[in-house]
Amino acid sequence: MVPLYAPWFVLLAILMQLVPSSAYPITASWFRDRYSREEWAQALDSYQKFGADSIWQRAPPIIKRTEGELSRNPNFVWCGSTKSATKVTGTRCWEEARSELSSLGLKVSGFLTYEYEEDFGKDVMLCPKYDRRLNSSRIYYRIVLPTTRPRTPCDFPQGSEVYVLFTTFSGTDSHSLLLEGAYNRSMNVYFGLPAFPVDSGGGFDTTLTDVYFAWVDRILFEHKQRYSRLTSREISLYSTLKGYYSTDEVCLAQVTPGSKKQRNLAGFYLNLYKNLGQMIRRYQKEFVLSPFIDLNLSELNATVSDHVRGFTAIANLGVVDVIAVQEGRGAGKGCYFWDTQIDLPVKTVDPMLYEILRYRQPTISPGVTYRQAFSASNQQVFRAFGTAHDLLVKQGVPFEFWLNVEAFEYVRDDPCLPVDPSASGMGELLERTSKSRVDRAITVAGADVQKIISFSWDADYLCVTRKYNKSLASEIIADKERPIISNCSFHSPYNLSVVVLGYNLDGETQSFKIKWTDTSGRNRTDTLYGYYFELDYGERNDRVTSLQYVMLWDTYDWQEVRPKGHVTVQAAGAYNDCIYSYDYS
Predict the structure, then answer these.
(1) What's the pTM value of the predicted model, to 2 decimals?
(2) Taking a C-beta distance cutoff of 8 angstroms, is the pair 67, 96 a contact?
(3) pLDDT by residue (tens digit) across 308-331?
(4) What is the DSSP letter of 422?
(5) Top-level CATH class of 8-20+483-583?
Protein backbone atom coordinates (compact mmCIF):
# COMPACT_ATOMS: atom_id res chain seq x y z
CA MET A 1 0.00 0.00 0.00
CA VAL A 2 1.23 3.51 -0.85
CA PRO A 3 0.80 6.49 1.53
CA LEU A 4 -1.82 9.08 0.59
CA TYR A 5 0.40 12.10 1.16
CA ALA A 6 2.88 11.43 -1.65
CA PRO A 7 2.38 13.37 -4.93
CA TRP A 8 0.63 11.26 -7.55
CA PHE A 9 3.51 11.34 -10.01
CA VAL A 10 5.94 10.15 -7.31
CA LEU A 11 3.60 7.34 -6.32
CA LEU A 12 3.19 6.25 -9.91
CA ALA A 13 6.90 6.30 -10.65
CA ILE A 14 7.70 4.21 -7.56
CA LEU A 15 4.95 1.69 -8.21
CA MET A 16 5.81 1.27 -11.89
CA GLN A 17 9.31 0.27 -10.80
CA LEU A 18 8.06 -2.20 -8.18
CA VAL A 19 5.23 -3.84 -10.13
CA PRO A 20 6.02 -5.52 -13.47
CA SER A 21 3.94 -4.71 -16.55
CA SER A 22 0.89 -6.97 -16.50
CA ALA A 23 -0.06 -9.46 -19.17
CA TYR A 24 -3.58 -9.62 -20.55
CA PRO A 25 -5.86 -10.89 -17.75
CA ILE A 26 -6.82 -14.11 -19.58
CA THR A 27 -4.15 -16.64 -18.59
CA ALA A 28 -5.78 -20.03 -19.29
CA SER A 29 -7.61 -21.74 -22.16
CA TRP A 30 -8.65 -25.06 -23.70
CA PHE A 31 -6.38 -26.60 -26.34
CA ARG A 32 -6.95 -29.27 -28.96
CA ASP A 33 -4.51 -32.16 -29.28
CA ARG A 34 -1.33 -31.87 -31.37
CA TYR A 35 0.80 -34.71 -32.66
CA SER A 36 4.39 -33.48 -32.85
CA ARG A 37 6.83 -31.68 -30.57
CA GLU A 38 7.15 -28.94 -33.18
CA GLU A 39 3.40 -28.27 -33.20
CA TRP A 40 3.24 -28.10 -29.41
CA ALA A 41 6.36 -25.92 -29.21
CA GLN A 42 4.94 -23.40 -31.67
CA ALA A 43 1.56 -23.35 -29.94
CA LEU A 44 2.94 -23.01 -26.41
CA ASP A 45 5.51 -20.35 -27.39
CA SER A 46 2.78 -18.15 -28.87
CA TYR A 47 0.53 -18.88 -25.89
CA GLN A 48 3.31 -17.82 -23.51
CA LYS A 49 3.79 -14.63 -25.52
CA PHE A 50 0.09 -14.01 -24.94
CA GLY A 51 0.89 -14.13 -21.21
CA ALA A 52 -0.92 -17.36 -20.33
CA ASP A 53 0.26 -20.17 -18.06
CA SER A 54 -2.43 -22.89 -17.93
CA ILE A 55 -3.71 -25.40 -20.50
CA TRP A 56 -6.99 -27.27 -20.07
CA GLN A 57 -8.21 -30.14 -22.21
CA ARG A 58 -11.49 -31.91 -22.70
CA ALA A 59 -11.90 -35.62 -23.36
CA PRO A 60 -14.31 -37.75 -25.42
CA PRO A 61 -17.04 -39.87 -23.85
CA ILE A 62 -17.09 -43.53 -23.06
CA ILE A 63 -19.44 -44.95 -25.72
CA LYS A 64 -21.54 -48.10 -25.47
CA ARG A 65 -21.13 -50.19 -28.64
CA THR A 66 -22.93 -53.15 -30.15
CA GLU A 67 -20.87 -55.83 -31.86
CA GLY A 68 -22.25 -54.59 -35.17
CA GLU A 69 -21.05 -51.05 -34.45
CA LEU A 70 -17.59 -52.32 -33.55
CA SER A 71 -17.37 -54.29 -36.77
CA ARG A 72 -18.18 -51.14 -38.77
CA ASN A 73 -15.86 -48.83 -36.82
CA PRO A 74 -12.73 -48.14 -38.93
CA ASN A 75 -10.59 -47.90 -35.79
CA PHE A 76 -11.34 -51.56 -35.02
CA VAL A 77 -10.67 -53.11 -38.42
CA TRP A 78 -7.37 -54.43 -37.05
CA CYS A 79 -8.70 -55.67 -33.72
CA GLY A 80 -8.37 -59.40 -34.23
CA SER A 81 -7.54 -62.39 -32.10
CA THR A 82 -4.75 -62.41 -29.53
CA LYS A 83 -3.95 -65.88 -30.84
CA SER A 84 -3.22 -64.81 -34.42
CA ALA A 85 0.35 -63.95 -35.40
CA THR A 86 -0.52 -60.42 -36.53
CA LYS A 87 -3.39 -59.86 -34.06
CA VAL A 88 -5.37 -58.64 -37.10
CA THR A 89 -6.91 -61.83 -38.42
CA GLY A 90 -9.01 -64.51 -36.81
CA THR A 91 -11.88 -64.02 -34.42
CA ARG A 92 -12.73 -60.38 -33.76
CA CYS A 93 -11.34 -59.08 -30.43
CA TRP A 94 -14.77 -58.46 -28.96
CA GLU A 95 -15.99 -61.93 -29.93
CA GLU A 96 -12.88 -63.44 -28.39
CA ALA A 97 -13.40 -61.37 -25.23
CA ARG A 98 -16.95 -62.63 -24.81
CA SER A 99 -15.88 -66.25 -25.33
CA GLU A 100 -12.83 -66.08 -23.09
CA LEU A 101 -14.53 -64.25 -20.24
CA SER A 102 -17.54 -66.56 -20.38
CA SER A 103 -15.18 -69.50 -19.93
CA LEU A 104 -13.87 -67.77 -16.78
CA GLY A 105 -17.38 -67.51 -15.36
CA LEU A 106 -18.08 -63.86 -16.19
CA LYS A 107 -21.14 -62.48 -17.97
CA VAL A 108 -20.33 -59.79 -20.56
CA SER A 109 -23.13 -57.19 -20.36
CA GLY A 110 -21.79 -55.15 -23.27
CA PHE A 111 -18.90 -53.38 -24.95
CA LEU A 112 -17.53 -49.85 -24.60
CA THR A 113 -14.95 -47.77 -26.44
CA TYR A 114 -12.73 -44.92 -25.33
CA GLU A 115 -10.99 -43.46 -28.38
CA TYR A 116 -8.55 -40.79 -27.24
CA GLU A 117 -5.18 -41.84 -28.66
CA GLU A 118 -3.44 -42.35 -25.33
CA ASP A 119 -0.36 -44.56 -25.22
CA PHE A 120 -1.39 -46.40 -22.08
CA GLY A 121 1.22 -48.61 -20.46
CA LYS A 122 0.88 -52.00 -18.82
CA ASP A 123 -0.26 -50.35 -15.57
CA VAL A 124 -3.71 -49.79 -17.09
CA MET A 125 -4.15 -53.60 -16.99
CA LEU A 126 -4.85 -53.97 -13.28
CA CYS A 127 -6.34 -57.41 -13.80
CA PRO A 128 -3.92 -59.49 -15.93
CA LYS A 129 -6.23 -62.49 -15.68
CA TYR A 130 -8.84 -60.61 -17.74
CA ASP A 131 -7.20 -57.57 -19.37
CA ARG A 132 -5.29 -57.82 -22.64
CA ARG A 133 -3.05 -55.74 -24.91
CA LEU A 134 -3.17 -56.35 -28.68
CA ASN A 135 -0.26 -55.09 -30.79
CA SER A 136 -1.76 -54.86 -34.24
CA SER A 137 -1.91 -52.09 -36.85
CA ARG A 138 -3.33 -50.23 -33.88
CA ILE A 139 -2.52 -50.83 -30.24
CA TYR A 140 -5.64 -51.97 -28.41
CA TYR A 141 -6.27 -52.52 -24.73
CA ARG A 142 -9.09 -54.77 -23.60
CA ILE A 143 -10.13 -53.69 -20.10
CA VAL A 144 -12.67 -55.60 -18.03
CA LEU A 145 -14.74 -53.38 -15.72
CA PRO A 146 -17.27 -54.34 -13.01
CA THR A 147 -20.89 -53.20 -13.10
CA THR A 148 -20.87 -52.86 -9.31
CA ARG A 149 -17.95 -51.74 -7.17
CA PRO A 150 -16.01 -54.78 -5.96
CA ARG A 151 -14.02 -54.97 -2.74
CA THR A 152 -10.85 -54.95 -4.84
CA PRO A 153 -10.47 -53.94 -8.53
CA CYS A 154 -10.12 -57.53 -9.76
CA ASP A 155 -12.60 -59.24 -7.44
CA PHE A 156 -14.97 -60.93 -9.94
CA PRO A 157 -16.94 -63.80 -8.35
CA GLN A 158 -18.44 -66.43 -10.63
CA GLY A 159 -21.40 -65.00 -12.53
CA SER A 160 -20.27 -61.36 -12.18
CA GLU A 161 -21.57 -58.99 -14.83
CA VAL A 162 -18.86 -56.94 -16.54
CA TYR A 163 -18.38 -54.53 -19.41
CA VAL A 164 -15.43 -54.81 -21.78
CA LEU A 165 -13.86 -51.48 -22.76
CA PHE A 166 -11.52 -51.11 -25.73
CA THR A 167 -9.01 -48.30 -26.26
CA THR A 168 -7.15 -47.50 -29.48
CA PHE A 169 -3.73 -45.94 -30.13
CA SER A 170 -2.31 -45.06 -33.54
CA GLY A 171 1.25 -44.09 -32.65
CA THR A 172 1.54 -40.55 -31.19
CA ASP A 173 0.37 -39.53 -27.72
CA SER A 174 -0.43 -35.81 -27.74
CA HIS A 175 -0.71 -35.75 -23.95
CA SER A 176 2.89 -36.82 -23.31
CA LEU A 177 4.13 -34.24 -25.81
CA LEU A 178 2.03 -31.56 -24.13
CA LEU A 179 3.38 -32.32 -20.67
CA GLU A 180 6.93 -32.21 -21.94
CA GLY A 181 6.42 -28.87 -23.71
CA ALA A 182 4.52 -27.38 -20.76
CA TYR A 183 7.20 -28.44 -18.29
CA ASN A 184 9.89 -26.73 -20.35
CA ARG A 185 7.86 -23.49 -20.19
CA SER A 186 6.73 -23.71 -16.54
CA MET A 187 3.07 -24.10 -17.50
CA ASN A 188 0.30 -26.04 -15.78
CA VAL A 189 -1.72 -28.74 -17.55
CA TYR A 190 -5.20 -30.03 -16.68
CA PHE A 191 -6.21 -33.18 -18.56
CA GLY A 192 -9.82 -33.85 -19.44
CA LEU A 193 -11.64 -36.74 -17.81
CA PRO A 194 -13.80 -39.02 -19.97
CA ALA A 195 -17.30 -37.70 -20.51
CA PHE A 196 -20.00 -39.80 -18.84
CA PRO A 197 -21.68 -42.29 -21.20
CA VAL A 198 -25.15 -41.48 -22.53
CA ASP A 199 -28.05 -43.72 -23.50
CA SER A 200 -29.89 -43.86 -26.83
CA GLY A 201 -32.13 -40.97 -25.78
CA GLY A 202 -29.22 -38.63 -25.04
CA GLY A 203 -29.55 -38.82 -21.25
CA PHE A 204 -26.89 -40.13 -18.89
CA ASP A 205 -26.74 -43.92 -18.78
CA THR A 206 -26.65 -44.29 -15.00
CA THR A 207 -26.52 -48.10 -15.28
CA LEU A 208 -22.85 -47.52 -16.19
CA THR A 209 -22.02 -45.35 -13.15
CA ASP A 210 -19.73 -47.86 -11.44
CA VAL A 211 -18.22 -48.87 -14.78
CA TYR A 212 -17.41 -45.21 -15.46
CA PHE A 213 -15.74 -44.64 -12.09
CA ALA A 214 -13.74 -47.87 -12.46
CA TRP A 215 -12.35 -46.69 -15.81
CA VAL A 216 -11.53 -43.20 -14.50
CA ASP A 217 -9.65 -44.77 -11.59
CA ARG A 218 -7.65 -46.87 -14.05
CA ILE A 219 -6.71 -43.72 -15.97
CA LEU A 220 -5.64 -41.84 -12.84
CA PHE A 221 -3.52 -44.74 -11.64
CA GLU A 222 -1.92 -45.30 -15.05
CA HIS A 223 -1.11 -41.59 -15.48
CA LYS A 224 0.66 -41.49 -12.14
CA GLN A 225 2.76 -44.53 -12.97
CA ARG A 226 3.62 -43.56 -16.53
CA TYR A 227 4.22 -39.82 -16.12
CA SER A 228 6.22 -40.35 -12.94
CA ARG A 229 8.61 -42.45 -15.00
CA LEU A 230 8.71 -40.01 -17.93
CA THR A 231 11.09 -37.17 -17.15
CA SER A 232 12.38 -33.94 -18.62
CA ARG A 233 15.74 -32.85 -17.27
CA GLU A 234 15.36 -35.58 -14.63
CA ILE A 235 12.13 -34.04 -13.30
CA SER A 236 8.95 -36.15 -13.38
CA LEU A 237 6.41 -34.90 -15.91
CA TYR A 238 3.72 -35.87 -13.39
CA SER A 239 4.48 -32.62 -11.55
CA THR A 240 3.37 -30.62 -14.62
CA LEU A 241 0.01 -32.42 -14.61
CA LYS A 242 -1.72 -30.04 -12.22
CA GLY A 243 -5.11 -31.69 -12.23
CA TYR A 244 -8.15 -32.96 -14.10
CA TYR A 245 -11.17 -31.25 -15.67
CA SER A 246 -14.63 -32.81 -15.76
CA THR A 247 -15.84 -32.68 -19.35
CA ASP A 248 -19.45 -32.96 -18.12
CA GLU A 249 -20.76 -29.45 -17.50
CA VAL A 250 -23.95 -28.36 -15.75
CA CYS A 251 -25.99 -25.18 -15.47
CA LEU A 252 -25.53 -23.92 -11.91
CA ALA A 253 -29.22 -23.08 -11.61
CA GLN A 254 -30.06 -26.76 -12.15
CA VAL A 255 -28.02 -27.90 -9.13
CA THR A 256 -30.87 -26.79 -6.89
CA PRO A 257 -34.08 -28.28 -5.45
CA GLY A 258 -37.03 -28.21 -7.84
CA SER A 259 -39.09 -30.75 -9.75
CA LYS A 260 -38.35 -34.45 -9.32
CA LYS A 261 -36.56 -34.42 -12.67
CA GLN A 262 -34.42 -31.47 -11.61
CA ARG A 263 -33.66 -33.06 -8.21
CA ASN A 264 -32.54 -36.21 -10.01
CA LEU A 265 -30.32 -34.19 -12.35
CA ALA A 266 -28.83 -32.18 -9.48
CA GLY A 267 -28.22 -35.36 -7.52
CA PHE A 268 -26.50 -36.98 -10.50
CA TYR A 269 -24.06 -34.10 -10.99
CA LEU A 270 -23.30 -33.70 -7.30
CA ASN A 271 -22.65 -37.45 -6.98
CA LEU A 272 -20.50 -37.39 -10.14
CA TYR A 273 -18.41 -34.45 -8.96
CA LYS A 274 -18.06 -35.74 -5.41
CA ASN A 275 -16.78 -39.14 -6.54
CA LEU A 276 -14.44 -37.70 -9.17
CA GLY A 277 -13.08 -35.16 -6.71
CA GLN A 278 -12.43 -37.79 -4.06
CA MET A 279 -10.63 -40.02 -6.57
CA ILE A 280 -8.46 -37.17 -7.85
CA ARG A 281 -7.61 -36.00 -4.33
CA ARG A 282 -6.16 -39.45 -3.64
CA TYR A 283 -3.59 -38.69 -6.32
CA GLN A 284 -2.92 -35.20 -4.88
CA LYS A 285 -4.14 -33.44 -8.00
CA GLU A 286 -6.67 -30.63 -8.45
CA PHE A 287 -10.24 -31.19 -9.63
CA VAL A 288 -11.61 -28.39 -11.81
CA LEU A 289 -15.06 -27.69 -13.27
CA SER A 290 -16.60 -25.20 -15.68
CA PRO A 291 -20.36 -25.00 -15.08
CA PHE A 292 -22.43 -22.38 -16.89
CA ILE A 293 -25.10 -19.81 -16.20
CA ASP A 294 -28.45 -19.33 -17.95
CA LEU A 295 -30.19 -16.03 -17.31
CA ASN A 296 -32.22 -16.17 -20.54
CA LEU A 297 -35.91 -15.95 -19.65
CA SER A 298 -36.97 -17.89 -22.76
CA GLU A 299 -34.82 -20.87 -21.76
CA LEU A 300 -34.28 -21.80 -18.12
CA ASN A 301 -35.80 -18.68 -16.54
CA ALA A 302 -33.49 -18.94 -13.51
CA THR A 303 -32.64 -16.26 -10.95
CA VAL A 304 -29.37 -15.12 -9.44
CA SER A 305 -30.30 -16.93 -6.23
CA ASP A 306 -30.87 -20.19 -8.14
CA HIS A 307 -27.35 -19.94 -9.58
CA VAL A 308 -25.72 -19.07 -6.27
CA ARG A 309 -27.37 -22.07 -4.57
CA GLY A 310 -25.92 -24.37 -7.23
CA PHE A 311 -22.51 -22.71 -6.98
CA THR A 312 -22.55 -23.14 -3.19
CA ALA A 313 -23.72 -26.77 -3.39
CA ILE A 314 -20.79 -27.70 -5.65
CA ALA A 315 -18.27 -25.84 -3.49
CA ASN A 316 -19.61 -27.48 -0.34
CA LEU A 317 -18.73 -30.90 -1.74
CA GLY A 318 -15.28 -30.00 -0.46
CA VAL A 319 -13.45 -31.74 -3.31
CA VAL A 320 -13.55 -29.10 -6.08
CA ASP A 321 -10.47 -26.89 -6.41
CA VAL A 322 -11.61 -24.57 -9.21
CA ILE A 323 -15.09 -23.50 -10.36
CA ALA A 324 -14.59 -21.65 -13.65
CA VAL A 325 -18.06 -20.30 -14.47
CA GLN A 326 -18.95 -19.95 -18.15
CA GLU A 327 -20.27 -16.42 -18.61
CA GLY A 328 -23.00 -17.43 -21.09
CA ARG A 329 -22.78 -14.27 -23.21
CA GLY A 330 -21.42 -16.03 -26.31
CA ALA A 331 -24.26 -18.57 -26.19
CA GLY A 332 -27.01 -16.01 -25.48
CA LYS A 333 -27.48 -17.27 -21.92
CA GLY A 334 -25.82 -14.26 -20.27
CA CYS A 335 -25.73 -10.53 -20.96
CA TYR A 336 -23.90 -7.30 -20.21
CA PHE A 337 -25.97 -4.33 -19.08
CA TRP A 338 -25.75 -1.68 -16.36
CA ASP A 339 -28.68 -0.77 -14.13
CA THR A 340 -29.42 2.26 -16.30
CA GLN A 341 -29.79 0.08 -19.41
CA ILE A 342 -32.25 -2.56 -18.20
CA ASP A 343 -35.18 -1.07 -20.17
CA LEU A 344 -33.17 -0.36 -23.32
CA PRO A 345 -33.53 -2.62 -26.38
CA VAL A 346 -30.80 -5.27 -26.45
CA LYS A 347 -30.28 -4.42 -30.11
CA THR A 348 -29.17 -0.85 -29.36
CA VAL A 349 -26.68 -1.81 -26.62
CA ASP A 350 -25.31 -5.13 -27.87
CA PRO A 351 -26.31 -5.77 -31.52
CA MET A 352 -24.48 -9.12 -31.71
CA LEU A 353 -26.28 -10.43 -28.62
CA TYR A 354 -29.58 -9.53 -30.29
CA GLU A 355 -28.51 -11.51 -33.38
CA ILE A 356 -27.74 -14.51 -31.16
CA LEU A 357 -31.15 -14.24 -29.45
CA ARG A 358 -32.85 -13.95 -32.85
CA TYR A 359 -30.95 -16.97 -34.17
CA ARG A 360 -32.00 -19.07 -31.19
CA GLN A 361 -35.55 -17.67 -31.10
CA PRO A 362 -36.54 -16.36 -34.58
CA THR A 363 -39.83 -14.86 -33.36
CA ILE A 364 -38.21 -12.55 -30.80
CA SER A 365 -39.27 -8.90 -30.99
CA PRO A 366 -36.74 -6.45 -32.52
CA GLY A 367 -37.41 -4.14 -29.58
CA VAL A 368 -36.92 -6.71 -26.82
CA THR A 369 -35.33 -5.11 -23.75
CA TYR A 370 -32.93 -6.60 -21.24
CA ARG A 371 -35.70 -6.71 -18.64
CA GLN A 372 -37.86 -8.73 -21.04
CA ALA A 373 -35.08 -11.09 -22.14
CA PHE A 374 -33.00 -11.78 -19.01
CA SER A 375 -33.54 -12.34 -15.32
CA ALA A 376 -30.34 -10.45 -14.39
CA SER A 377 -27.04 -9.17 -15.77
CA ASN A 378 -23.72 -10.97 -15.67
CA GLN A 379 -22.40 -8.30 -13.35
CA GLN A 380 -25.10 -9.15 -10.79
CA VAL A 381 -24.60 -12.92 -10.87
CA PHE A 382 -20.78 -12.84 -10.89
CA ARG A 383 -20.71 -10.34 -8.05
CA ALA A 384 -22.99 -12.73 -6.12
CA PHE A 385 -20.65 -15.63 -6.92
CA GLY A 386 -17.69 -13.58 -5.68
CA THR A 387 -19.47 -12.80 -2.41
CA ALA A 388 -20.43 -16.46 -1.97
CA HIS A 389 -16.86 -17.58 -2.70
CA ASP A 390 -15.38 -15.23 -0.10
CA LEU A 391 -17.87 -16.37 2.52
CA LEU A 392 -17.27 -20.06 1.80
CA VAL A 393 -13.50 -19.62 2.04
CA LYS A 394 -13.93 -17.89 5.41
CA GLN A 395 -16.08 -20.83 6.52
CA GLY A 396 -13.27 -23.27 5.70
CA VAL A 397 -14.24 -24.33 2.15
CA PRO A 398 -11.15 -23.46 0.10
CA PHE A 399 -11.47 -23.26 -3.69
CA GLU A 400 -10.84 -20.80 -6.52
CA PHE A 401 -13.54 -19.00 -8.50
CA TRP A 402 -12.61 -18.28 -12.13
CA LEU A 403 -14.35 -16.45 -14.96
CA ASN A 404 -14.66 -18.42 -18.21
CA VAL A 405 -14.98 -15.94 -21.09
CA GLU A 406 -16.78 -17.33 -24.14
CA ALA A 407 -14.71 -16.03 -27.06
CA PHE A 408 -17.35 -17.02 -29.60
CA GLU A 409 -20.69 -15.74 -30.86
CA TYR A 410 -23.53 -18.23 -31.32
CA VAL A 411 -24.18 -17.34 -34.97
CA ARG A 412 -22.91 -18.96 -38.16
CA ASP A 413 -22.54 -16.22 -40.79
CA ASP A 414 -18.73 -16.14 -40.69
CA PRO A 415 -17.77 -19.26 -38.75
CA CYS A 416 -14.48 -20.63 -37.59
CA LEU A 417 -14.00 -24.28 -38.46
CA PRO A 418 -14.64 -26.76 -35.66
CA VAL A 419 -11.47 -28.14 -34.14
CA ASP A 420 -11.19 -31.64 -32.68
CA PRO A 421 -14.96 -31.90 -32.14
CA SER A 422 -14.81 -35.22 -30.27
CA ALA A 423 -12.53 -33.94 -27.55
CA SER A 424 -10.75 -30.70 -26.73
CA GLY A 425 -11.96 -28.21 -29.34
CA MET A 426 -15.13 -26.46 -30.46
CA GLY A 427 -17.69 -28.93 -31.74
CA GLU A 428 -19.87 -26.45 -33.64
CA LEU A 429 -19.51 -23.99 -36.50
CA LEU A 430 -19.57 -20.66 -34.65
CA GLU A 431 -18.11 -17.19 -35.10
CA ARG A 432 -15.20 -15.91 -33.02
CA THR A 433 -15.72 -12.67 -31.14
CA SER A 434 -13.87 -9.34 -31.06
CA LYS A 435 -11.24 -8.05 -28.68
CA SER A 436 -13.59 -5.30 -27.49
CA ARG A 437 -16.22 -7.88 -26.49
CA VAL A 438 -13.63 -9.93 -24.57
CA ASP A 439 -12.64 -6.70 -22.81
CA ARG A 440 -16.32 -6.17 -22.00
CA ALA A 441 -16.54 -9.60 -20.37
CA ILE A 442 -13.63 -8.61 -18.13
CA THR A 443 -15.26 -5.23 -17.44
CA VAL A 444 -18.39 -6.99 -16.21
CA ALA A 445 -16.87 -9.75 -14.06
CA GLY A 446 -13.09 -9.33 -13.89
CA ALA A 447 -13.04 -7.83 -10.39
CA ASP A 448 -14.74 -10.79 -8.68
CA VAL A 449 -12.54 -13.76 -9.60
CA GLN A 450 -9.14 -15.31 -8.90
CA LYS A 451 -8.26 -16.13 -12.51
CA ILE A 452 -9.70 -15.80 -16.03
CA ILE A 453 -9.88 -18.65 -18.55
CA SER A 454 -11.43 -18.58 -22.03
CA PHE A 455 -12.94 -21.11 -24.42
CA SER A 456 -11.26 -21.99 -26.67
CA TRP A 457 -7.75 -21.27 -27.94
CA ASP A 458 -7.69 -23.06 -31.28
CA ALA A 459 -11.27 -22.49 -32.39
CA ASP A 460 -11.55 -18.83 -31.34
CA TYR A 461 -8.17 -17.24 -30.65
CA LEU A 462 -6.28 -18.57 -33.69
CA CYS A 463 -9.12 -18.33 -36.22
CA VAL A 464 -8.96 -16.01 -39.28
CA THR A 465 -12.16 -15.52 -41.31
CA ARG A 466 -13.61 -13.26 -44.00
CA LYS A 467 -14.64 -10.77 -41.35
CA TYR A 468 -11.40 -10.97 -39.34
CA ASN A 469 -8.10 -10.96 -41.24
CA LYS A 470 -6.14 -11.19 -37.98
CA SER A 471 -6.54 -13.72 -35.21
CA LEU A 472 -8.03 -12.72 -31.88
CA ALA A 473 -4.77 -13.75 -30.17
CA SER A 474 -2.70 -11.43 -32.36
CA GLU A 475 -5.17 -8.57 -31.82
CA ILE A 476 -4.94 -8.99 -28.05
CA ILE A 477 -1.14 -9.21 -28.06
CA ALA A 478 -0.96 -5.97 -30.07
CA ASP A 479 -3.54 -4.27 -27.84
CA LYS A 480 -2.98 -5.83 -24.41
CA GLU A 481 -1.99 -2.56 -22.71
CA ARG A 482 -5.43 -1.01 -23.32
CA PRO A 483 -7.09 -0.12 -19.98
CA ILE A 484 -10.06 -2.14 -18.76
CA ILE A 485 -12.29 -0.99 -15.90
CA SER A 486 -13.82 -3.91 -13.98
CA ASN A 487 -15.59 -2.03 -11.20
CA CYS A 488 -16.30 1.55 -10.23
CA SER A 489 -17.93 3.14 -7.18
CA PHE A 490 -17.69 5.91 -4.62
CA HIS A 491 -15.22 5.07 -1.87
CA SER A 492 -18.05 5.21 0.71
CA PRO A 493 -21.16 7.27 1.57
CA TYR A 494 -18.83 9.56 3.53
CA ASN A 495 -16.07 9.81 0.92
CA LEU A 496 -17.33 10.41 -2.61
CA SER A 497 -13.95 9.96 -4.24
CA VAL A 498 -14.38 7.70 -7.26
CA VAL A 499 -12.61 4.33 -6.92
CA VAL A 500 -11.82 2.21 -9.97
CA LEU A 501 -10.73 -1.45 -10.15
CA GLY A 502 -9.34 -2.80 -13.39
CA TYR A 503 -6.35 -3.59 -15.54
CA ASN A 504 -3.65 -1.42 -17.12
CA LEU A 505 -4.81 1.63 -15.19
CA ASP A 506 -1.30 2.77 -14.25
CA GLY A 507 -0.35 4.67 -17.41
CA GLU A 508 1.56 7.85 -16.63
CA THR A 509 -1.02 10.00 -18.41
CA GLN A 510 -4.07 7.78 -17.81
CA SER A 511 -7.14 9.95 -17.38
CA PHE A 512 -10.75 9.20 -16.50
CA LYS A 513 -13.89 11.03 -17.57
CA ILE A 514 -16.57 11.14 -14.88
CA LYS A 515 -20.18 11.91 -15.77
CA TRP A 516 -22.48 12.77 -12.87
CA THR A 517 -25.54 14.84 -11.94
CA ASP A 518 -25.51 17.67 -9.43
CA THR A 519 -28.23 18.65 -6.95
CA SER A 520 -29.80 21.08 -9.43
CA GLY A 521 -30.23 18.31 -11.98
CA ARG A 522 -27.44 19.42 -14.31
CA ASN A 523 -25.35 16.73 -16.00
CA ARG A 524 -21.67 17.36 -15.32
CA THR A 525 -18.47 15.93 -16.79
CA ASP A 526 -15.00 16.04 -15.22
CA THR A 527 -11.67 14.68 -16.38
CA LEU A 528 -9.75 13.24 -13.43
CA TYR A 529 -6.48 11.44 -12.74
CA GLY A 530 -5.53 8.86 -10.16
CA TYR A 531 -3.68 9.94 -7.04
CA TYR A 532 -3.74 6.77 -4.92
CA PHE A 533 -2.72 3.45 -6.45
CA GLU A 534 -2.65 -0.16 -5.26
CA LEU A 535 -1.14 -2.00 -8.20
CA ASP A 536 -0.87 -5.20 -6.16
CA TYR A 537 -4.54 -5.01 -5.14
CA GLY A 538 -5.48 -8.31 -6.80
CA GLU A 539 -2.66 -10.24 -5.21
CA ARG A 540 -3.43 -8.88 -1.73
CA ASN A 541 -7.19 -9.33 -2.01
CA ASP A 542 -7.42 -12.84 -3.50
CA ARG A 543 -8.35 -11.68 -6.98
CA VAL A 544 -6.64 -11.85 -10.38
CA THR A 545 -3.07 -10.85 -9.51
CA SER A 546 -2.89 -8.06 -12.11
CA LEU A 547 -6.10 -6.36 -10.85
CA GLN A 548 -5.35 -2.75 -9.84
CA TYR A 549 -7.01 -0.19 -7.54
CA VAL A 550 -7.05 3.54 -8.32
CA MET A 551 -8.66 6.37 -6.37
CA LEU A 552 -9.26 9.53 -8.41
CA TRP A 553 -8.74 13.18 -7.52
CA ASP A 554 -11.87 15.12 -6.56
CA THR A 555 -12.61 18.21 -8.64
CA TYR A 556 -16.10 18.82 -7.36
CA ASP A 557 -17.68 19.73 -4.03
CA TRP A 558 -19.12 16.57 -2.53
CA GLN A 559 -22.15 18.54 -1.39
CA GLU A 560 -22.99 19.24 -5.04
CA VAL A 561 -23.47 15.55 -5.83
CA ARG A 562 -27.08 14.50 -6.16
CA PRO A 563 -27.97 12.15 -3.23
CA LYS A 564 -29.37 9.50 -5.60
CA GLY A 565 -28.33 8.74 -9.13
CA HIS A 566 -25.68 7.10 -11.22
CA VAL A 567 -22.14 7.86 -12.32
CA THR A 568 -20.45 6.88 -15.58
CA VAL A 569 -16.69 6.33 -15.54
CA GLN A 570 -14.73 6.26 -18.79
CA ALA A 571 -11.04 5.38 -18.81
CA ALA A 572 -9.27 7.12 -21.69
CA GLY A 573 -8.51 4.51 -24.34
CA ALA A 574 -10.81 1.82 -22.93
CA TYR A 575 -13.41 0.14 -25.13
CA ASN A 576 -16.06 0.01 -22.42
CA ASP A 577 -17.47 2.32 -19.75
CA CYS A 578 -18.41 1.48 -16.18
CA ILE A 579 -21.68 2.74 -14.67
CA TYR A 580 -22.70 2.52 -11.05
CA SER A 581 -25.89 3.55 -9.28
CA TYR A 582 -26.02 4.88 -5.73
CA ASP A 583 -28.63 6.01 -3.23
CA TYR A 584 -27.51 8.10 -0.23
CA SER A 585 -30.85 9.85 0.19
Answers:
(1) 0.94
(2) no
(3) 999 999 999 999 999 999 999 999
(4) T
(5) mainly beta
